[in-house]
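request received
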Amino acid sequence: MNVLVLGAGQLARMMALAVKPLNINIRAFDVGSGNVVDPLSTNIIFGDLAQGIEFADFITAEFEHIDHQTLAICQASGKLRPSSQAIKVGGDRRLEKNLLIKCNVANAKHQIIETKADFDQALDNLSFPLILKSALAGYDGKGQWRLKDKSNADSIWLDIKAFFDGAEQGVKHAVVAEQMVPFDREVSLVGARDSQGNTLVYPLTENHHTQGVLSVSIATQIDETLQAQAKKVFDSIANELDYIGVLAIEFFQIGEQLLVNEIAPRVHNSGHWTQQGADTCQFENHLRAVCDLPLGSTELVRPSAMINILGEDEVPNAILNIASTTLHWYGKSKRVGRKMGHINVSGNSEQQLAARLMSLADILPEAAFDELKPYVAAYQNKVN
Ligand code: AMP
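response:
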């Protein structure tokens, strides 16, 4: 089976590594260069998209910010899974909010802003503090403004207006203003839906962000009521989109309630722990769904965690002395803040996982993993 992935980053790479044993060959379309490449070596295989589409039995995507013309061409081939509509929803917060409303799932109160009148209305209708997020191409905390009260509204509006005015030709920007949610923690649900409509989800994962970017995820056996609440949301969104593949949903947890923050129509950073911590990893399950193979079990094998390596191209080799620890590099050149790789670690109990996480935090340089130690210490306190 041959599959073309739109996007040639680490997610395409990890898909390729995961499904080689299933005899699924992955090629990746590098949207920047327009070439179809080998996702591991990045060697050019084809010079254009058309040859990539011809090669593929199925086409999928590793990110949602793909230009609409490329999506339309792939959709027309009849090979694209999930559909272009599902991919677009993940890349436009306006469509995403409309989907959440349609599916009747809880999310933060919001207003879409396209004009100054919308902005003024949002200030009147929503409660402070507010977070304002660019509707398009905003991820990992980029393209965002925060508003504590009305006092700096004028300068924020000027900033947003400049952002609107600077749009490329043909692009109409908007901003989604959202009430800040006083959440207890952030969690996400990664799951898969096949073409027959069967769904399987992994356990909810607790996520810690550092400066708006995911830094640590922890997956353990979770409260069944909360898991059922998240699964219900997953099913309603995945069914509404007639989704095929892995889909991730990020939530804010307040007490026992989950509010959807955003959805990602793809394998997700908060699901990387599944490589060692679940029966079938998210990358394999995505390709199983896309290629019409039966979904694999999403059961947690044992408590597991993932630590992102951001902006560093080396870590002390001594971390590999810690039992049940694996290192995954993405083969990318070093840049400040860039996702360069991740570390997975598992334990037979949460206590053992916490102890191994603490051993990692002791070895990893504090400057590059600055919030790791306090976060792990708090987790260790919770489970001991
Ligand atoms: P996003 O790009 O929507 O995932 O936002 C990045 C991060 O900003 C989230 O992971 C949260 O930590 C924070 N954030 C986003 N929206 C809200 C909100 N409505 N209330 C509180 N925190 C938020």
